[in-house]
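Long-time lurker. I teach an intro course on protein structure, and each term I like to show students one example going from raw sequence to a predicted 3D structure in token notation. This year I'd like something fresh instead of my usual example. Would anyone be willing to generate the tokens for the chain below so I can use it in lecture? Attribution to the forum is fine with me.
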Amino acid sequence: MKDSPSMTERDLKDMFEQNFEHLRAENGHSLSPEVREAAWQQVRLYWSRLRHIAEAVTDTEVELSLPNQKTPKGRPFCIEGVVDIVRESDRVTMYDIKTHDLDFVRSNREFYEDQLNVYAHIWQQLRGQRLDEAAIIATPPPDKVLDAVRAGDPARIQAACREWDPVVPIPFDAGKVKKTVDQFARAVDAIEDHQFAPPGVETLEQRNPDGRSFAHRVCRNCDVRFSCASYRSYARKYKDRNWRKFAAFYDAPADEGEEQDRTEVSMGSVASAMEAAEDL
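-- Reply from a regular --
Happy to contribute to a lecture. Here you go:
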């Protein structure tokens, strides 16, 4: 990115298509045209909002590893992660890119602090590199941005994107690394012993003081939530708007010949609106 400061949207789209074809060839799966276009629009929004960081990245997709760890029951494991590094003048920043909801990240910084403590330890102690700050980048555009895009109003899109700050600074303390590694170790033992299960619908409905449910704060960030029976029940009851995309598969009628309803997204209007809002 840093070597191409004049990257155009056409360049970005070409990269998107190349990555798409690479992933399709690698795993043998493809995406529907609607989902593929929605993915491209998210990439475009993300690039428009965070181009200044993307072009400043000096070390991209840096693989970090903490090997030779043991669980309380003696199982070997290692902790791995991938981060991006930005070196600017006299400061070094570590970015961890997440597909998690921005509000969730802001409300649960301690979760990410634990993870970044380990990454910072690997970067500083094992690699001997300097680190001044760390941050999470929450890639999904917030509802306000998506609603503006759906409305097709360029002025509204610009205003929503100006308010959208996906970068969440996370403090790190290398002194807490052992505690975090111990938590990972116990989790490994629990998984290997099959001691895990999704919480019940009652838990998903519980709300914290700000009024948001457990499902909104936690499950919303799980990429496989619609494979969870508890969340499917919650989605049906509270009419999760994304549930309609999956309902046809889970709630299919007995007659396989019956035509399935599906949600259609008019991405043409989205693209037109985004063309009009080129300079976010």
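Some talking points for your students: The chain is about 50% helix and 15% strand. Residues 256-280 have pLDDT under 50 and may be disordered.
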